[in-house]
Write a structure and sequence with these properties.
- By secondary structure, the protein is an alpha+beta fold.
- The chain is about 45% helix and about 20% strand.
- The chain has a four-stranded antiparallel sheet with strand order 1-8-3-6. Strands 2-7-4-5 form a four-stranded antiparallel sheet.
- A hairpin with a 5-residue loop joins β4 and β5.
- α8 packs across α9.
- It is elongated.
- It starts with 8 loop residues before the first helix and ends with a helix.
- About 30% of the residues are buried.
Length: about 230
């Protein structure tokens, strides 16, 4: 975590428009008074599995992965977070320890909202409660879809799905085709439920088929439609 950077807390809170627009003026002041802003370096943990949740988090800039330690201490990436996305709140609402961990994929600025503050806002404002119910329902639906994909699709389809999902979530660079998120081969494997060696071989196969182009961690999507077909075919 990087200290010493100055942030205008009110401007930060206002940037989280989905939440800010639901609040009364007094609730906005209450929120601004209590939030914290932290900057995390690339690969730095944001929270760890079995930590006690004390904050809800909103990603202001950067990219974050949420993962779970699986069999043989092999991580499975559960989801990636895009800018202004909330994360780390399920365990807080349930009142249990974190069942996942989260770390920064790249330098990331995170707004931390104390759990007690958010609970107060939820109790006072039903619109805030409904907002998080919708967020949790969406997350559950995505988790159901991911479970089927990771357990029933073949390796090529799983990796193709990961690539198109990363493109849809984070977009591309100015060239219109290079993914704007740079994941290690290990992370690509953890995202797609495969070994790192299988991820490397499959990416190489996609490159030889001119579906993608690879330059280190940079991946350029050449044949978007074909990748989506591979993903859908399973």
């Amino acid at each position: 975590m990087i200290a010493g950077e100055d942030f205008d807390r009110r401007k930060v809170a206002m940037s989280i428009t989905d939440l800010w627009n639901l609040l009364t003026e007094s609730q906005r002041n209450f929120l601004v008074e209590h939030i914290k802003i932290h900057v995390y370096r690339k690969s730095e943990p944001i929270y760890n599995e079995l930590d006690d949740p004390t904050y809800l988090m909103c990603l202001l800039s950067g990219k974050v992965k949420v993962f779970k330690d699986g069999a043989g201490h092999r991580n499975q990436i559960i989801r990636t977070i895009k800018e202004l996305g909330f994360f780390g709140y399920r365990a807080a609402f349930v009142g249990e320890k974190y069942q996942t961990g989260a770390s920064a994929i790249e330098r990331s600025v995170v707004c931390l909202i104390p759990v007690k503050v958010m609970i107060t806002l939820i109790k006072e404002n039903t619109n805030v409660a409904i907002y998080f119910i919708k967020q949790l329902a969406t997350m559950l639906g995505e988790a159901d879809t991911l479970t089927v994909s990771l357990t029933q699709k073949h390796i090529r389809a799983r990796l193709a799905e990961s690539l198109v999902n990363l493109k849809d979530k984070y977009g591309v660079e100015e060239d219109g085709s290079t993914l704007s998120v740079y994941l290690s081969r290990e992370d690509m494997a953890c995202l797609s439920n495969m070994t790192t060696s299988n991820a490397i071989r499959t990416l190489s196969a996609f490159a030889s088929e001119h579906l993608i182009a690879i330059d280190g961690r940079k991946i350029k999507i050449i044949a978007d439609t074909e990748l989506r077909k591979i993903s859908q075919m399973g």
